[in-house]
Write a structure and sequence with these properties.
Elements (H helix, E strand, L loop, with lengths): L5 E5 L3 H13 L4 E4 L2 H7 L6 E5 L8 H10 L6 E5 L4 H9 L4 E4 L4 H30 L6 H11 L4 H8 L3 H15 L4 H10 L3
Parallel strand pairs: 1-2, 1-3, 3-4, 4-5
Helix pairs in contact: 6-8, 6-9, 7-8
């Protein structure tokens, strides 16, 4: 899987795709261009981080419809709309749906690169946070169902005696399970255990 952030340019105008490609290549940024929203959807892998530089008015699926389709597929790719025919209602619609920016052509190279770099950094940070959360959740993979159950009660603030009473087991058995939970998760204290629990939304 390629984890290098990439710019995805979707515009039906050949000249626009070529000029944007030249700008991004000169800036040392990885990019791919697509002549239609449909072509982009066919080739894009949700695991690939990046930023979508998207035209609004295109044959077939237009920019707004592509944005809606990505939302439907739970693909949270930062989108920068770049169009020659923008207006306030169009901008509001795009931003309300989650676009990170809405630029009107012609746009200066400096401004475009500034916005693109900001969007890419946002994407990198988002992926890093997701990976961190996954790493935390991986710590729970060795827990038994009983240990997970007890972990939830511990995080909720129940004492060993209260847990034992609720589960109908001995106080000593709870202590053993609790110790195993701390050992397997690598949590040095209850605060860290609660953080792991919250990150995995158990």
């Amino acid at each position: 899987m390629n984890t290098q952030p990439c710019l995805f340019v979707v515009d039906d105008d050949d000249a626009v795709r070529d000029s944007l490609g030249l700008v991004f290549e000169t800036a040392g940024l990885a990019y791919q261009t697509f002549a239609s929203a449909e072509c982009f959807l066919e080739s894009y892998s949700p695991e690939q981080p990046g930023c979508l530089v998207l035209d609004v008015n295109m044959p077939g699926l237009d920019g707004h419809e592509l944005q809606a389709e990505l939302i439907r597929r739970h693909i949270h790719l930062p989108i920068i709309f770049l169009t020659a025919y923008g207006d306030i209602p169009m901008t509001v619609r795009a931003m309300k749906a989650g676009a990170v920016d809405f630029l009107t052509k012609p746009v200066s190279t400096e401004l475009l690169l500034d916005r693109v770099q900001a969007a890419l950094q946002l994407e990198v940070n988002t992926h890093a946070q997701a990976n961190k959360g996954q790493a935390l959740c991986n710590r729970l993979s060795g827990l038994t169902s009983r240990e997970l159950e007890i972990m939830g009660m511990v995080v909720a603030g129940l004492t060993n005696k209260e847990i034992a009473r609720r589960l109908g087991i001995s106080h000593r058995t709870v202590e053993i399970h609790r110790a195993k939970v701390m050992e397997k998760t690598g949590a040095p204290n209850l605060l860290e255990l609660a953080r792991i629990y919250a990150a995995c939304r158990l």
